[in-house]
């Protein structure tokens, strides 16, 4: 079987298929990985909780950005431009901070 004939079967359990809502992403990186925390912020709430954390290699982070850009372009071609609203600058505090 050559590379063009390979396929990957992907399974998803019911809980994961439900997804989680996030309206904020915080991205950090080191020399070897990108960490993306997806957060749900509720209006007026003084606290928000990380709903999901994804850790990517730099190569996969770049592939993700390219795939996301392609999907946004396809979405906008079909649905029109996505309007950007400029949210307030939120002071983000991941506490407590651990010490090594």
Q: Give a short account of the largest sheet.
A: 3 strands, antiparallel
Radius of gyration: 18 Å
Determine the mean pLDDT.
88
The residue fraction in helices comes out at 25-40%
Computed structural class: alpha+beta
User: What general outline do the C-alpha atoms trace?
Assistant: globular
The span between the termini is: 49 Å
Number of strands: 3
Strand content: 15-25%
In sequence order, what are the helices and strands, one letter per element?
HEEEH
Low-confidence sequence ranges: none
Side-by-side strand order of the widest sheet: 1-2-3
Number of helices: 2
In short:
The protein is of the alpha+beta class. 27% of the residues lie in helices and 21% in strands. The longest helix has 22 residues, at 58-79.
Write the layout of secondary structure elements.
Layout lengths: L13 H5 L5 E6 L4 E7 L8 E8 L1 H22 L21
Antiparallel strand pairs: 1-2, 2-3
Give an overview of the whole structure.
- There is one protein chain.
- The chain has 100 residues and is α+β, with helices and mostly antiparallel strands.
- It has a domain at 20-79.
- It is 27% helix and 21% strand.
- Strands 1-2-3 form a three-stranded antiparallel sheet.
- The longest helix has 22 residues, at 58-79.
- It starts with 13 loop residues before the first helix and ends in a 21-residue tail after the last helix.
- 0% of the residues are buried.
- The mean pLDDT is 88.
Keywords:
single chain, 100 residues, alpha+beta, 3-stranded antiparallel β-sheet, 2 helices, 27% helix, 21% strand, globular
């Amino acid at each position: 079987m050559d590379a063009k004939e390979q396929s990957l079967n992907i399974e998803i359990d019911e809980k994961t298929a439900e997804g989680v809502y996030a309206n904020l992403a915080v991205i950090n990186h080191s020399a070897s990985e990108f960490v993306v925390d997806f957060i749900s912020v509720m209006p007026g709430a003084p606290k928000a909780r990380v709903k999901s954390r994804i850790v990517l290699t730099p190569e996969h982070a770049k592939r993700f950005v390219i795939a996301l850009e392609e999907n946004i372009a396809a979405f906008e071609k079909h649905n029109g431009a996505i309007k950007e609203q400029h949210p307030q600058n939120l002071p983000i505090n991941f506490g407590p901070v651990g010490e090594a």
